[in-house]
């Protein structure tokens, strides 16, 4: 098994890589923290992220054709999310709300044969539009990973497929290709505004505040659209990905 330390032979090089990537830890921790309650400490997120960074440096294998920055981001984010799970910071009623929204979206998609509008989802939940939007705003912190499951008995990220040492099998490559195809289908069916918000957030790495300025909308509305978009994607992927596996 390859390890950076075994290949390079010096702890100085290992320490240098860790220090070089510390800003990456802070960036990821801050982006996650902005969607969490104020009671969650940013320093705790950074500490967990540093643990993930150290693991990434020690286990990094350049033969997998993945850059250290990309691999480190995967490990840093995973370590922070693991720490949050252990804290059990999310109120159970918010998790229930997220699952209720997902169930309403799934029911409407099956009934209508298309992506339901916001008003239709609110109606299925027997909520007014403004009350439904408040739900979306309140559950935004649950979506701290790309597609983290909101239920208490399910954990894991659908995009957790970056090869790690011996995990570069052809079956994994095929799984990732199929996953990307399904994601593209799901995104294509989303309303334009939600698709734009997710694209700016995940591909352009803009903050929610920056997206609000770009789209000339209130910050809370951007947070609602992001939550709704992620819940749509998660509903679609749970139905189609689970059936294919």
Give your account of this protein's structure.
The chain has two domains: 4-87, Orthogonal Bundle (Rna Polymerase Sigma Factor, Chain: A), CATH 1.10.1740.10; 92-244, Butyryl-CoA Dehydrogenase, subunit A, domain 3, CATH 1.20.140. It contains twelve helices and no strands. The protein has helices at 4-8, 11-20, 22-33, 42-59, 68-87, 92-112, 118-124, 129-138, 170-188, 192-203, 208-215, 219-244. Helix 3 crosses helix 5. It is globular. Residues 1-9 and 146-168 have low confidence and may be disordered.
Instruction: Indicate the percent of residues in helices.
Output: 55-70%
Helix and strand content put the structural class at mainly alpha
**Low-pLDDT segments, ≥5 res:** 1-9, 146-168
* Strand/helix succession: HHHHHHHHHHHH
Brief synopsis:
By secondary structure, the protein is mainly α. It is built from twelve helices and no strands.
Pick out its properties.
globular; 0% strand; disordered N terminus; 2 domains; Butyryl-CoA Dehydrogenase, subunit A, domain 3; mainly alpha; 245 residues; Rna Polymerase Sigma Factor, Chain: A
SSE blueprint and pairings:
Blueprint: H1 4-8, H2 11-20, H3 22-33, H4 42-59, H5 68-87, H6 92-112, H7 118-124, H8 129-138, H9 170-188, H10 192-203, H11 208-215, H12 219-244
């Amino acid at each position: 098994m390859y390890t950076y330390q075994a290949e390079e032979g010096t702890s100085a090089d290992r320490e240098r890589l860790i220090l070089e990537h510390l800003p990456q830890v802070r960036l990821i921790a801050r982006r996650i923290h902005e969607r969490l309650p104020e009671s969650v400490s940013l320093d705790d997120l950074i500490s967990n992220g540093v643990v993930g960074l150290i693991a990434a440096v020690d286990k990094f294998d350049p033969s997998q054709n993945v850059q250290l920055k990309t691999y480190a981001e995967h490990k840093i984010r995973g370590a922070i999310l693991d720490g949050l799970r252990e804290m059990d910071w999310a109120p159970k009623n918010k998790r229930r709300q997220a699952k209720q929204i997902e169930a309403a979206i799934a029911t409407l998609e099956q009934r209508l044969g298309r992506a339901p509008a916001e008003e239709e989802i609110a109606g299925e939940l027997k909520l007014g539009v403004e009350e439904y939007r408040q739900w979306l705003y309140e559950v935004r912190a649950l979506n701290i990973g790309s597609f983290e499951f909101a239920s208490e008995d399910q954990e894991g990220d659908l995009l957790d497929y970056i090869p790690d040492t011996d995990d570069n099998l052809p079956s994994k490559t095929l799984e990732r290709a199929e996953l990307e195809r399904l994601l593209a289908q799901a995104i294509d069916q989303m309303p334009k505004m939600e698709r734009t918000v997710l694209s700016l957030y995940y591909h352009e790495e803009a903050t929610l505040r920056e997206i609000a300025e770009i789209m000339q909308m209130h910050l809370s509305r951007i947070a609602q659209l992001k939550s709704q978009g992620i819940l749509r994607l998660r509903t679609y992927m749970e139905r189609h990905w689970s059936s294919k596996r």
